[in-house]
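User: Can you model how NDP sits in this protein?
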Amino acid sequence: MSARVLSGKELAATIRSQITEQAAVLRAAGTTPRLAVVTATDDASSAWYVSSLARAAGNVGISCDVVDLGADADIDTIRTELGKLSAQETVHGVILQTPLPPGATLADLATGIDPTKDVDGANPLSLGRLASGLPAYAPATAEAVLALLDHHGIDLAGQHVAVVGRSAVVGKPVAHLLLNRNATVTICHSRTRHLAAITRAADVLVAAIGKPKMITAEYLRPGAIAVDVGTNPTEDGGLVGDIDPDTARTQAAGVTPVPGGVGPVTTALLLAHTVQAAAH
Ligand code: NDP
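Assistant: Here's the modeled complex, given as structure tokens:
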């Protein structure tokens, strides 16, 4: 069997063109959608991500401010900055970039982001609302997983989905979004025993682990759909996912590529949330 490549590029382009139009309408009415990204790290891949996000925002007509507090910023400084940005009427979306300085946690600091501006769903209130089936901004990556499956016509109702990873930014919100769509969800993590036996029973596998190419053919049921959230930098400056595409393709019916799968849809949805927040 040779799997379909479930690309995210076409969907991301469609979302970008929709938000370009919506942002133009808002600007014409006097509101420029504005995103603020707070960073407190000297991590090179984070810097690369933030600059590409700012460029992508500019390309669709969203203004993007990067507030770099430095890698030695203390927790109170970050908290104060998030509070200030949340209070500014002209700022519509606020993101706190990870990694954070030692001792700081995203869930704790993100409580300082106003839920109406929490465009990457980092405030625990947003996750709680999602879990309760109430409107909230989902973390863009989690929403991208569902958007990509929808785009490729994969119906989730009644399907057994195994999510490998239980972080608050990917695994848990993906699981809640899937439940809201009537999938049967098993959440796996580093302490899960007989992982391959569980994932092999699933119709869809979502890998959000952070371990390069860990998911091989033996984790997949023949004909399964495999969604790769992992973005692991390689020594030569490239990117590999959590799924080994060469073996996975021999077993699965569809595999999302890395790069070019969940990643571009994530960025597009983050910008879409910002435009949505500006429209409100
Ligand atoms: P975390 O490190 O926060 O979580 C990783 C999860 O994987 C944990 O729940 C951990 O279990 C689990 N895990 C680790 N090792 C194993 C194992 N051997 N078997 C089973 N489960 C395991 O990572 P994130 O959720 O933040 O990110 C996951 C991946 O997604 C990373 O590669 C990250 O770069 C990528 N990512 C991609 C984005 C995108 O836009 N495409 C955005 C955000 C993240 P436990 O809880 O027990 O420790």
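A couple of observations from the model: Residues 31-115 form a domain with the Rossmann fold fold (CATH 3.40.50.10860). The two ends are 47 Å apart (CA to CA).
User: Helpful, thanks.
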